[in-house]
Design goal:
The structure is a single chain. With 515 residues, the chain is of the alpha+beta class. It has 3 domains: 274 residues, Bira Bifunctional Protein, Domain 2 (BirA Bifunctional Protein, domain 2); 110 residues, Herpes Virus-1, CATH 3.30.40; 117 residues, 3-Layer(aba) Sandwich (Rossmann fold), CATH 3.40.50.800. Helix content is 40%, strand content 24%. The chain contains 18 helices and 23 strands. A 7-stranded mixed sheet has the order 3-9-10-16-13-12-11. Strands 20-19-21-22-23 form a 5-stranded mixed sheet, sandwiched between helices. The chain has a 3-stranded antiparallel sheet with strand order 5-4-6. Helix 2 crosses helix 13, helix 5 packs across helix 8 and helix 6 crosses helix 7. The longest helix has 27 residues. The radius of gyration is 26 Å and the shape is globular. The protein starts with a helix and ends with a helix. It binds glycyl-adenosine-5'-phosphate (GAP). Glycyl-adenosine-5'-phosphate binds next to strand 10, strand 13, strand 16 and helix 13.
């Protein structure tokens, strides 16, 4: 549950994303399509850079991980085998007065989140009271009021997990009634029964109605990896442990689509399945938890903004699962899932296809179906995490303020704005020479409109890490002023040294070394 400041920050994120060409509502001229978004000229670059940062971290830094690009359409039996036809459902409930539809589990989780927020408020108050010596962990574990709130947050979630596990939908409804959860729109508790609703989008392949085959738009990219396991293993002569990575679109008919690009009907995933020897999967699970968190931390969004959330309810195919949660403007929410999926998927595809999906282990001299650790992150969610964390309002020393988008430089859509102080006296020509020098290794932007201060502000709001100003002295000293977006410090750099000065600061390879 977000407080007012968080809500304001979220509103700023939405309007800034639109104003600066990052994210637009899909088909906006037709009043938009709910929970579907388009990425604008800056958004597409940021998204591409995030995808690339993930891709290089997976496939370039790990010799035993390779990538694929499977089709979105897959044989329909894929989804029978994976369990999506039978069990990829959300429990839905309608309020009879407002006619609004909700996910029953989300209603209960939101109810619990309110108590978490109450507990955190108490902790924050105590931190102010006690000062530097304050031990927040100890306070959470010993203060009766905080413990009470946390218990109230924990217990319903645990009961919900048990009820969903037992497929007891009447029990879920009874829990909503017992907690006296009201419809946020009508304020009433006039609820329908809870029903399951499949999230896959169906479509048809083929020209005529009688011969057409029913297909699904893939709801996750992972299955494209499983069905190609043997192709990649054999043609790449891969030895266990090894991984297959993939990025691509996924589609889900989300009923409660909200929170901007956080939950969409068409979105992109970046998934990696790591195939390991049975019995070693829990060790690898820990390894991948650590590796993924190191990837996140390398971007500098602040380690305090991430936390692991171990699953109370394990899916039937998993023997360990955790989420990496991020502090979005509307609170800590799932950004990435790490799952130990056992041999469930490969075995299911063996059964449904009649083909063996096994690995011959020369050391053990036997065949086995590998176990799988999966890391799965939503590209759009990562975009939102980075964008919302980077958007800051700052009050400057002279009392003025600025809006700055402090994107990690390696991911910023434009690395440098090239600014001739005036539109004459040969300064634009020098600016274009600089562009011709830099454009081979980075995106740069030419801007000659308005006073230099306004151009700096525009570049700040756009997330551009460097401004390069060409002034009258440039003609004599062959140097330019380079302004740093975050510190606003300025340095005089010789034009011949510019590339060497900026490149290491914005190059992905340099940032990847921080992992
Ligand atoms: N193969 C495993 C899998 O798909 P998931 O938890 O359903 O697991 C993985 O999804 C990630 O995909 C999530 O952590 C989230 O980042 C992203 N994701 C899931 N549904 C989404 C949606 N409707 N909109 C945007 N991102 C979504």
């Amino acid at each position: 549950m977000a407080n007012n400041n968080d809500t304001d920050q979220f509103k700023k994120v939405l309007s800034h994303a639109k104003e600066y060409g990052y994210v637009f509502q899909s088909s906006e001229i037709y009043d938009g399509l709910q929970a579907v978004y388009d990425y604008g000229q800056n958004g597409v670059e940021l998204k591409k850079n995030i995808r690339e940062y993930w891709w290089q971290a997976m496939t370039q830094l790990n010799q035993e991980i390779v990538g694929i690009d499977a089709a979105i359409f897959m044989h329909p039996t894929t989804w029978k085998a994976s369990g999506h036809v039978d069990a990829f459902n959300d429990p839905l409930i309608d309020n009879k007065d407002s006619k609004k539809r909700y996910r029953a589990d989300v209603l209960i989780e939101d109810y619990c989140e309110k108590y978490v927020q109450k507990a955190e408020k108490e902790v924050a108050k105590a931190a102010k009271r006690f000062g530097d010596d304050f031990d927040a962990v100890m306070y959470r574990e010993t203060n009766p009021r905080v413990m009470g709130y946390l218990q109230k947050a924990k217990e319903p979630v645990e009961r919900l997990a048990r009820l969903l596990e037992a497929e007891d939908l009447a029990g879920v409804k009874a829990l909503i009634e017992e907690l006296e959860i009201k419809c946020p729109v009508s304020g009433s508790m006039n609820w329908t029964d809870v029903r399951q609703f499949n999230l896959m989008f169906g479509t048809k392949l083929g020209a005529s109605a009688d011969t057409a085959t029913d297909l699904y738009l893939r709801p996750e990219t992972a299955q494209g990896i499983f069905v190609n396991f043997l192709n990649v293993q054999k043609t790449g002569r891969m030895k266990i442990p090894f991984g297959i990575a993939q990025t691509g679109k996924a589609f889900r008919n989300e009923i409660v689509a909200r929170q901007f690009i956080f939950r969409q009907r068409e979105f992109e995933q970046m998934e990696m399945q790591y195939f390991v020897k049975p019995g070693t999967e829990l060790e690898w699970f820990e390894v991948w938890k650590e590796r993924r968190m190191a990837w996140h931390n390398s971007l500098g969004l602040g380690s305090e903004n991430y936390r692991f959330h171990d699953h109370e309810k394990l899916a039937h195919y998993a023997n360990a699962a955790t989420d990496i949660e991020f502090k979005f403007p509307f609170g800590f929410k799932e950004l990435e899932g790490i799952h130990s999926r056992t041999d469930f998927d490969l075995k299911a595809h063996e059964e449904h296809s009649g083909k063996k999906l096994q690995f011959f282990d020369h050391e053990e001299n036997k065949n086995y179906v590998p176990y799988v650790i999966e890391t799965s992150i939503g590209l759009d969610r990562m975009f939102l995490a980075i964008f919302s964390n980077s958007l800051q309002d700052e009050t400057l020393e002279d009392g003025s303020s600025r809006t700055v988008l402090k994107l990690p430089a390696a991911l910023a859509p434009v690395k440098a704005a090239i600014l001739p102080l005036l539109k004459k006296d040969g300064l634009p020509e020098i600016a274009h020479e600089i562009i011709n020098e830099l454009k081979w290794s980075m995106n740069v932007l030419y801007d000659e409109k308005d006073a230099i201060g306004r151009r700096y502000r525009r570049a700040d709001a756009n997330g551009t890490p460097y401004c390069i100003t060409i002034d009258h002295d440039t003609k004599d000293d062959h140097a330019v002023t380079v302004r740093d977006r975050d510190t606003m410090t300025q340095e005089r750099i010789a034009i011949k040294d510019l590339k060497a000065y900026i490149e290491p600061k914005v190059q992905m390879s340099e940032w990847l070394k921080r992992i």
